[in-house]
Design brief:
This protein has two helices and eight strands. By secondary structure, it is an alpha+beta fold.
């Protein structure tokens, strides 16, 4: 990408951040190795969650977006499966799949990740509703 195109793109991306940024928080889960056999056979005891980390970045509902509807229609026509996402989050933070995200009174999780960090310096996360944690 030449310098003029990169500068134009970065200006547009910064404008997007200023207009659409909202307060949200995320919580990561890491696998922890056990030093003893105390937890042998137990499922779920080898994970530790971080505290909620606050950030302010763009998050967009995808339910009625044209690109979401078009993508789902093309998948159905070609015999593919349709994946349902509640929101798309544009972030400069590199996070793993299944990271929990809190936006307003909803808890979501990262279901799909698109990595544009080498081209544009950001990631796009597709978030699914975690209705088991809402309320």
């Amino acid at each position: 990408m030449d310098a003029v195109a990169k500068r134009t793109f970065n200006t547009a991306l910064n404008r997007l951040y200023r207009i659409f940024k909202v307060d949200l928080a995320y919580k990561t889960t890491q696998e922890v190795e056990s030093s003893s056999d105390d937890g042998f056979g137990d499922i779920g005891n080898n994970y530790a969650e971080s505290d909620w980390i606050k950030t302010c970045e763009p998050i967009i509902p995808t339910g009625t977006s044209a690109s979401s509807s078009l993508g789902n229609t093309l998948n159905m026509l070609s015999g593919g499966s349709v994946e349902d996402y509640s929101y798309e989050w544009i972030s400069k933070i590199d996070l793993p799949l299944k990271t929990r995200v809190k936006y307003k009174d909803k808890q979501l999780s990262i279901a799909k990740k698109s990595d544009y960090s080498d081209i544009a310096g950001f990631f796009v996360y597709q978030l699914q509703d975690r209705s088991d944690h809402n309320g």
